[in-house]
């Protein structure tokens, strides 16, 4: 493996995170909090350290899939390790392990928290939590790719390792412009949401932080009650944007370049919306008598469905109170997740659709053993390798899931709590059911369980394999 | 890099075989926006993983696939699949749907005489015939067997020869200025390849035997120079053996026969042999497996003056050429189409190495640069020499150009850049320190640097 290149890119990533930390430091300044200094200190040191690292340019620039995976995994681990320091330094989260859990949860856009009260935090820490959601949503390396000239054409491996979905394509011929376009769309949409939330009467700080948390489909709120206290208008805006940010970003690029037919023809997006609509109808029928009128029921159900399916994890009501049928649907939606190429988590709609189509193909082949059938998705043949890849993904996912549930069962909480905790972290959703439901948090887990869950969050965000590669001995052999 | 953002060409390449891949790589290296179309998902996967281009899987002749690749906004569409007909169809459809210039690879000899008609009727900007172009190079090499590579410049008025300095040559341990002082004809050593490195030499550069040097001069003077170097055993070519009866062989055979060279062609495929003997009746066509040594000796490998391996298999070509080099003193030309092996083949004693892609990419890069010309850069034409490691750029000197009327030795030309020759209204001068550039001249600048876009880029620190 070409270690100097990996180190060089890690240096770049450190610079970027260091620079990003100046924003919460600035927020601290605005609110005259001494806690802001912790961000200035950590960010400043990190930026300088990154600067020192990149002084030594690697001679051998060869960069392949292996380096891509390792770089991405290490970057994310590094981001979390350093990003957690300010919380400890300014005393908002006294234990480093908890701070690490919180930061991993932020960057992976999970939104699972160990905090009993978010409101007790300094403003700058609240801001950093939401901002980490935003950074992690589109990905740090995609950001690095969009602004910095890196090694060469093989950058595609970085993008492939970081961007979610079974296949990763480019919007435009160059990696750099593709990354820049993604971030332009991302920033543009975030800005629109900020404006809409301001119009709904939110103050600037809330509008910006809530937009960050929605854009990354992260789900870190700034109130203990998540989104309960906001006006219906604000809740509707957040619902819409959660869903929009979970749509494949190539759709937006197609819209921007006026290719409407192609954009609206996106098969994954159609499935995504179809699932949302069916889920909202089913749950509304199940719970409408718990609300004052159908309108309000639909609003809350749509918010919850949108929040869990897109892996955001905001809440307006405690869905733990809902009937079993509704809760089961919600749990299933967590697994389905968002579209590939979006900021959302989960297993991705495209994978689910391809699984279903492969099963259909298998059945047909049992009936007509000599028939030749090809799985098509988005109007194109899905290559055998891709099908195999996503099958392997499912198997690995189930293994990881099982091992995680087993490991956290030491804590002796109920099965629903354990199962949904793993589901909510590996799918980057955030809140689960029962003890880890919207009104609970993850503070009661033992340090071991917290580490397991943090690992699951990273594995979920990076779609497992990059992280597993880090532990494979062959990665480091010559 | 950012400041010429608007000047980036949107280019679609249909076909990602060896040629398509090489073209995509060359154009991506020029910072153009490239989209590659191929039917094979595997090939697309490969090209998008290693080159900064976007890939589309599908039939490039389909309107739908072309639109997906963005043909409506493309500047150039280049069709380089194996099939001439598909290429022409691709270009036709692109012409009808977009405003792009179209370039088609058309290499079947049948179409040769019809190229002007096809070009006009289909509105093609250019047709490429890599096989014929390669054949032209091979024939030229046979005229000057001492050279490893020959390129012509300034509409054929200037030649660049690449030759290797043999053991015991008078050039060994001489600086370039010494060599030039001792030689009356106007020639210039403009690039030296030593091992894997290519150097644009200064006057005090010390030559060694084993170096491969590029010599600029007119035909007569460079021939004189090469003769003086005394490369052993290579005289005029009177008979040649070609292995492989494909398209290239057909072009080579036709050209050689026109020059009175006796041609023998080997192929193990009976049908190909028959086709060949219909097309080139003057050649001796031998239906036999050339990979059997006794077949080659029976047909007189030892007595042949030139031996060219032109089959579609790189491995066979290299092996046969090694064999020929060992048992014969003839001029050997080897076709190696996997450009990734350029570094390896150089180390082998297999004579001149030819590849279809190098020639094709050279033409296409030339065309694309010329198209960009109208939008900023004033490079007239571009040639790539020394395995594409050196660019030779032709600039036109405009009005009030600050470097006019100053002897070259007083200009502070940057390292790795050399003015090789000056065209004063049709009179070619091989540049030396006293040469002066005037308004209206064209100059050929040789460089290993990339991104030279203006004549003024070459002076300064």
CATH superfamily of the largest domain in chain B: NAD(P)-binding Rossmann-like Domain
Strand order of the largest sheet of chain B: 3-2-1-4-5-6
Gyration radius of chain B (Cα, Å) is: 23 Å
Number of strands of chain B: 24
Describe the structure.
The complex is a heterodimer of chains A (478) and B (461). Helices cover 64% and strands 1% of the residues of chain A. By secondary structure, chain A is an all-alpha fold. In chain A, α20 packs parallel to α21. Chain A starts with a helix and ends in a 9-residue tail after the last helix. Chain B has 461 residues and is of the alpha/beta class. Chain B has four domains: 2-128, Rossmann fold (3-Layer(aba) Sandwich); 134-229, Alpha-Beta Plaits (2-Layer Sandwich), CATH 3.30.70; 239-354, NAD(P)-binding Rossmann-like Domain (Rossmann fold); 376-458, Alpha-Beta Plaits, CATH 3.30.70.1450. In chain B, the strands form five sheets. Chain B has a six-stranded parallel β-sheet, sandwiched between helices. Chain B has a six-stranded parallel β-sheet with strand order 16-15-14-17-18-19, sandwiched between helices. In chain B, α1 packs parallel to α14 (356-373), α6 (130-143) crosses α9 (247-258) and α6 (130-143) crosses α14. The longest helix of chain B is centred in the last third of the chain and has 18 residues, at 356-373. The mean pLDDT of chain B is 84. Classes of the chains: A mainly alpha (478), B alpha/beta (461).
Summarize the structure.
The complex is a heterodimer of chains A (478) and B (461). Chain A has 478 residues and is mostly helical. Helix content of chain A is 64%, strand content 1%.
From the structure above, extract its key features.
heterodimer; A: 478 residues; mainly alpha; two-stranded antiparallel sheet; 22 helices; globular; B: 461 residues; alpha/beta; Rossmann fold; Alpha-Beta Plaits; 4 domains; 6-stranded parallel sheet; 14 helices; 32% helix; 26% strand
